[in-house]
User: What shape does this take?
Amino acid sequence: MKIHEYQAKEILRQYNVPMPPNKFVTDVESAKSAGNEVGFPCVVKAQVHVGGRGKAGGIKLAQNLDELVEHTNKIFGMNIKGITVKKVLIEKAADIDKELYLGIVIDRARNLPVIMASPAGGIDIEEVAAKTPEKILIIPLKASIGLAPFIIKKIAYSLNIPKEGMKDFSLVAKGLYNAFIDKDCSLAEINPLVITKQNQILACDAKMNFDDNALSRHPEIEELRDESEEEPLETIARKKHVNYVKLDGEIGCIVNGAGLAMATMDLIKHFGGEPANFLDIGGGAKAEQVTEALKIVTSDKNVNTILFNIFGGIVRCDLVAEGILKALEILKLTIPIVIRLSGTNEDKAREMLKGTKLIPMLTMSDAAKKAVEISKSITQ
Amino acid sequence: MSIIVDKNTRLIIQGITGNEGQFHGEQMIKYGTKVVAGVVPGKGGETCLGVPVFNTVSEAKEKTNANASIIYVPAAFATDAVLEAIDAGIKVVVCITEGIPTLDMIKVYWETKANDVILIGPNCPGVISPGKCKVGIMPGHIHLEGRIGVVSRSGTLTYEIVYELTKSKLGQSTCIGIGGDPIIGTKFIDALKMFKNDPETDAVVMIGEIGGTDEEMAAEYIRTEFNKPVIGFVAGLTAPPGKRMGHAGAIISGGTGTAKEKIKALNSANIPVAERPDQIARLVKEMLAN
Assistant: This one.
């Protein structure tokens, strides 16, 4: 799960991470008083989850109140990669000498969290990693040691932190690490971490992502979820416990199992079609899940064909077929549905589907091919 | 031979009285797995599926001489269940449970390494040596005893591919579903190392998906050290970046973990990668013929 910069900063502030004074606002009037409160010059920053908001014009420097009004007027309502800006952070501008990067992520290859530091801050760390990997220091953080003082010192020296800034840097590193562990983050980064001309160390941006598997023990994090940033159908699916990701194609996919669901999408593309979504109804393919899945997939107006791909291993295919027929009866759908059921009692299941509008196919490849054929005939 | 589980496996089911534990416990017994005990705190002394239930894993191990355990307990209790099995001296642990927090799993991972425990999963279908022993939730009947090793991050996609192999008379030595989480006990490389030492495995089918770099690391290992043919498949060519595709570990983040990169790495290690699941059996036959 992702949160906004202002929310990440609120968390980091609780962990004593130094940052410029800032205030989160949702309208121009409160932006004005926020500007007066934090002081000028200040930065007006659009709060959206997508990256590249600076390039899109969502971050502006205001020297005075007039400029602040001008910028906030422009930024509120601005569309950044499909998201309308409704939230803004007003932050005192730092007197920047250097911009650094400091972040913690889970390193899957090392099976540990790692702390990453770079003197090349202010740009995407992926870009630094691709072009100048030697500029990134990576240190694995063993649970038994954590972020020990010697590691903090090692990083500080590698970043040439000035003597006067050592104490603040230590606060930043400790705060970031403790927040990462306490809140079950998958990523926590400060980019840029600024050294000011007065040798202060300030977190001028913050990003935190959380482990979805740990949200149940962090209701305070779950509360920070901004549903207006999510694809509406994905929000509905999440609440119904259906794994769904919206894509841009025309063929709606309903599959049991995540790997099989991805392979089904790939197969549609392989045969020249475009999948409309990823959807995993779970290995068990239960009737309620099938009904919810059909509701979600048919809510996507781009969808003109549906492809069911069910590998009923231990699950009996006749029970799955029964569930699908029941769901169709309730939902009264007219959209063409290609279905492939494989596994226990598959013959019986096919027999049940005879005389219905469903188009049964024997193999996954044939089913995908058929779905593409039908979808294309509708589009043309 | 086979790897990880075989005729000598004596299995404990942690969570045997729950719905999942009972249903799959019965399926495993029907398949021929030697289930020797169940463990459910507070239910010690009872009997379930014809085997004794104990309060703790160490008691179950002591009384029944068990050497493997499978875990069907909810996510909130699953890491403790794995740690208990490790503490009791069980050396093969299969964790089916989905939804374990990553930081918890990291602690468990290092415990398994410190104690020489083979952990399969979490968030996985388990492991089966066809005709010998099934420790998991996979449908037994789609498998066929034979000489192809299968290792996969997925569940139903693995069944799909195994079924294709079986229909083509390509039996399997052992099939391992290593799990869809970011941190798992056994990675592709670990499985390949075991298959390398198994004289009854002739070739390996490796089924990967987006997220992480385990496929790339496996490709490098295969190129330099593996001595048997490997056939690959990678799911998720059409997956968008930044989105979790069902499995917690199936996410392209910061430009790494794409299917394209993985296929490229496998190809450069001379590993043929099937474009479709139904091409895998043919590729295996071709590789074995060469």
Notes: The radius of gyration of chain A is 26 Å. Chain A touches chain B through 52 residues (CB under 8 Å). Chain A has a mean pLDDT of 94. The first helix of chain A runs from residue 5 to 14.
